[in-house]
Amino acid sequence: VAVTAVLLVLAAHGASHWQALMTLQLGEFSGVATAVSDAQSRRGAVTVAVRVAGERFRLTQHGTGRGALLAVRTGDRLVLDAERAALDARRLRFVAGRHIQGELRNVTVHAVLSAVAPWHRAANRVHEMIDHGLRTTHPHDAALARGLVLGDDSGQPMRMTEVFRASGLGHLLAVSGQNVALLLASLTPGLRRLSRWWRLAMALGIIAFFALVTRFEPSVVRAATMAAVVQVGFAVGRDALPLRALAITVMLVVIADPLATMQVGFLLSVAATAGLVVLAPQLSDGVREAVGKVVRHVVGIRVTRWMGEVATATLAAQLAVAPFSLWWFGSLPSVSLIANPLAVPVASIVMTTAVPLLAIARLHLLTTCAHLLTTVTSSSLPRGKSAKR
């Protein structure tokens, strides 16, 4: 009876969110809209989600009008004139997971102002730092790096996205639990020096800021919430079992945002994590050896135990997401069993080292050191001696 009551309450909660999604003000609007996403440029058009009077709309500009939107980031303010219009049922279902309620038409953008909220400004500075560090990189390589580090796919060419998805590596272009795990692992030595509650506060703060920087992508919301559950359990002396932590995570996310169940990224993330937690331990050593033999036969390299475990984890995740992939994308890339053990280690190195290296590039530390060394060397020589020689 209690379970039935809880399910009914959750169903009513979800229905109220859906009803609120379809209730919006239409007609002309003149004023300030706040960006709730970064601008994305695809096929000659720039799209950004904005909040107008508490409601979310999709704004798309073509031609010369798109220039004003190219540099818009989350939290920026747009002074504009527009007409608010509703979406049809099919398009509404497609964007409902991101709480988009309608679209803006006949838009005239008069000015773009920087974000006011300090947390948005801080997150945007991280994006600017990474963009500055990648300024001399080939555009395609820079787009790939932003995808690996930030989950930003706005600058990725369609061909790149298609190739990654066809090879089963599409998850690398979207920030996921792997990024959160690597972030916490790299900071663990420092966190261990803190007391229990300070460690918990620091860990939760880092997780929250990372989710903010990555724009609360569905897979990040799942991973960040699950990491927070594990950290809280560790702090209170009750280690959460992986499956229990996943169940608590799904419950918390769905209670906070019932429309999360309409996001493909969230469902795939939950399914893949369930596969890693439930299926991976059940796979026998024989299956692991067979996967290793396939990789060795096709690629022609010796497979280490670690690579075999990565392949096994890939198989478990693929089995779990297979129904969803076949339903939404119509395909299931079997080559991922070979591609992931080879690509994941390289991607992990990029994810771990990219931000500090790009921060160094942003600060021009190497250039400053070179100038300092040149100054010290030249000043140590007797004045005019080198010229006489």
List the helices and strands and how they pair.
Blueprint: H1 2-21, E1 27-35, E2 40-42, E3 45-52, E4 55-62, E5 77-86, H2 89-95, E6 102-113, H3 118-133, H4 139-150, H5 158-166, H6 177-191, H7 196-213, H8 218-235, H9 242-256, H10 264-279, H11 285-299, H12 305-328, H13 336-363, H14 365-380, H15 385-388
Parallel strand pairs: 4-6
Antiparallel strand pairs: 1-3, 1-5, 2-3, 3-4, 5-6
What does this structure look like?
With 389 residues, the chain is α+β, with helices and mostly antiparallel strands. Helix 6 packs parallel to helix 8 (218-235), helix 7 (196-213) runs antiparallel to helix 8 and helix 9 runs antiparallel to helix 10. The longest helix is centred in the C-terminal third of the chain and has 28 residues, at 336-363. It is globular and about 65 Å long. The relative contact order is 0.08. The protein folds into two domains: 2-116, Beta Barrel (OB fold (Dihydrolipoamide Acetyltransferase, E2P)); 124-357, no CATH class. It has a five-stranded mixed barrel. Helices cover 60% and strands 13% of the residues. A hairpin with a 2-residue loop joins strand 3 and strand 4. It contains 15 helices and six strands.
Summarize the model shown.
With 389 residues, the protein is of the alpha+beta class.
Features:
alpha+beta; 389 residues; disordered C terminus; globular; OB fold (Dihydrolipoamide Acetyltransferase, E2P)
